[in-house]
Write a structure and sequence with these properties.
Layout (H helix, E strand, L loop, with lengths): L1 H12 L3 H5 L14 H14 L24 H14 L3 H6 L4 H11 L6 H6 L18 H7 L1 H13 L13 H9 L4 H28 L5 H17 L5 H9 L2
Helix pairs in contact: 6-11, 8-9, 9-12, 11-12, 11-13
């Protein structure tokens, strides 16, 4: 049995595209555990291959779209990579923010609309209901969940007041990046990097609360979430993410 699996695996590595797309033969090449992540990638790949039309007798041609001459070079690959990191609004502030790398990666996905919110899961036919896990009033999009939801707005309101930041809480239909960039421009320069860290910390904490409710059936109040944000912020400062120190000092000076 094991030898047959090894033979199938080796055969899939040597298969041509023209052989794999006929009758969706490529499906039989999938091996390993069919986790949710694998199933989602399977659906996305299926959608892309449905539009592929092969032309007999026409050889494949590799085109590198990140250089004018369509030829690959390492320098063009680096330029394309760093261009993508800074292309979206807020990306420059994101990568410079003094927060743990996992939080930067999370917010990067949020800015690109790649979080697996209920709205996105419904669009991929992974669930039927797109209601927000925090308020159950509107569809759970990224901007609604992290900014526009009544629960999220209460967290922002309490936290801005606790950190003594002279800013208005977000209001619908603002987007996370628009409110973030416009609000930081109203702050003194000395507070801006600390505010960037606060924005990322709050978004990260609201997402974790959403996941606790969705997967663990646990609920925290907005006040409890704010307390956990303050505690985690102090831990970040202790871990060396010093930009938050100025904001935390404002809180401790009360």
């Amino acid at each position: 049995m094991q030898s047959n699996l090894v033979q199938d695996w080796r055969r899939s590595l040597s298969a041509y595209v023209r052989e794999a797309v006929v009758g969706r033969a490529w499906v039989r090449h999938i091996s390993g555990a069919l986790t949710m992540h694998v199933l989602v990638e399977y659906v996305l790949l299926w959608e892309r291959l449905e539009t592929v039309v092969l032309q007999p007798g026409v050889p494949d041609r590799f085109v590198w779209r990140w250089s004018p001459d369509a030829v690959y070079s390492s320098s063009s690959a680096y330029k394309a990579f760093f261009h993508g990191l800074t292309l979206l609004p807020g990306a420059r502030q994101l990568w410079r923010a003094s927060v743990p790398p996992k939080v930067k990666f999370f917010v990067w996905l949020a800015l690109r609309g790649r979080l697996w919110t209920s709205d996105r899961r419904r669009r991929h036919d992974l669930q039927d209901d797109a209601s927000c896990a925090l308020c159950d009033q509107e569809d759970e999009t990224t901007d609604h969940l992290l900014l526009g939801c009544v629960f999220a707005r209460e967290v922002w309101h309490r936290l801005l007041r606790k950190f003594r930041l002279p800013l208005q809480p977000p209001a619908a239909p603002s987007t996370l990046v628009d409110w973030w960039l416009s609000s930081r421009g109203l702050l003194p320069r000395a507070l801006r990097r600390g505010f960037d860290s606060v924005v990322l910390l709050v978004a990260w904490s609201v997402w974790k609360e959403r996941n606790r409710r969705t997967f663990e059936g646990l609920h925290s109040s907005a006040l409890e979430v704010v307390r956990s944000i303050v505690e985690e912020g102090q831990l970040w400062v202790s871990a060396g993410f010093r930009a938050l120190e100025v904001i935390v000092a404002l809180f401790l000076s009360e």
